[in-house]
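User: Teach me something about this protein's shape.
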Amino acid sequence: MYTQLEQRGMPEPPVNVSTLHRMKADGEPIACLTAYDASYAVLVDAAGTDLVLVGDSLGMVIQGHDTTVPVTVDDIIYHSRTVARGLRRAFLVADMPFMSYTKQAQALDNAVRLMQEGGAMMVKLEGGDDQVAIVEHLARHDIPVCAHLGLKPQSVHKIGGFKVQGREPDKAREMQASAKRLQDAGADIVLLECVPNEVGNAITEVLDVPVIGIGAGPNVDGQILVLYDILDITQGRTPRFVKNFQTGCDSPLLAIESYVRAVKERAYPEPEHCFS
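Assistant: First, the predicted structure itself:
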């Protein structure tokens, strides 16, 4: 079945949704990173990363914007297509950018474009209960979905900045309930951003699907960071959850391998990278 992969020198079959669900069941941490081009995609894949996200964070780290809001569907398609060419094993997820999924038909059309033109295997969208119907619609059409809760960068102007979410008990309960409803609507993965450790832990325990964290504590099913952050390329202030893995490494590949190893061994995140 995997003859072509073996001919390419691939030691194991590509990661898929079933692989990620099995990893959660087995307690194996899922190592995830962003990527935006083919060259870095090759390195991220070679380092053993399980999941690669073409995030709308490209608006900030590639395009130089202050937020992710200006990123378009065409931007994501372009970068997803280039990343896809560099991957062999890792599972490719593409962000649905700002205002690209306000209605069911629009969401389906854009998700199909991200998969057909961009080579994505899953799409990610931000939102809680307000996105349940969209997730259900996409899942009904066999579009794999990652739901994004907690800090939602596309809503930065509405929430007043990049802030930790879910510190208030009622907000934490609301987020947990939303996560469950999104799972039940068909979400295959839930991503939590900038939430207290206890919130990440509680949501991970209640869900059957994998929970990937970025600033969500050590007890989620996997971790994701922005590639440029771990390689110390990002200039200026970085979020608390960021760790520079380039220090002490002679190449980007070694730094990425160090990150993957730290996630797999649950050595990252450390307390200084977490919120309470």
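Now, about its shape. Residues 3-273 form a domain with the TIM Barrel fold (CATH 3.20.20.60). The mean pLDDT is 94. If you'd like, I can walk through any region in more detail.
User: That's plenty for now, thanks!
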